[in-house]
């Protein structure tokens, strides 16, 4: 992604019961005030800076277990 732009990272989950979804950044925090997660569990990062580069992890968890997927962002 180009610095100053927006990046979208999708996380598609299914399950019964519906899993709880969380996003986090490996070795850091999600950018304060510059991210959101919508109802489809898509993570959006706004006004991206070089500090936002890294690996982002989507974790889906229910009483039956958990699963995770990663996405790498380069700025």
Short summary:
The chain contains no helices and 6 strands. With 75 residues, the protein is an all-beta fold.
Structural class by secondary-structure content:
mainly beta
**Would you count the extended β strands for me?**
6
Terminus-to-terminus distance: 5 Å
Total helices: the number is 0
Total individual domains: 1
CATH C-level category = Mainly Beta
H-E order: EEEEEE
Examine the coordinates and then state which fold CATH places here, giving the name of the CATH topology: Immunoglobulin-like
- Rg, rounded, reads 13 Å
CATH superfamily: Immunoglobulins
> Which percent bin holds the helix content?
under 10%
Structural shape: elongated
Percent strand:
35-45%
Strand order of the largest sheet: 1-4-3
Word description of this protein:
The chain is an all-beta fold. The chain has strands spanning 7-9, 20-25, 35-37, 43-45, 54-62, 65-73. It has a single domain, classed as Immunoglobulins (Immunoglobulin-like, Sandwich), CATH 2.60.40.10. The strands form 2 sheets. Strands 1-4-3 form a 3-stranded antiparallel β-sheet, with no helix packed on it. The protein has a 3-stranded antiparallel β-sheet with strand order 2-5-6, with no helix packed on it. A hairpin with a 2-residue loop joins strand 5 (54-62) and strand 6. The protein is elongated, with a radius of gyration of 13 Å. The protein starts with 6 loop residues before the first strand and ends with a strand.
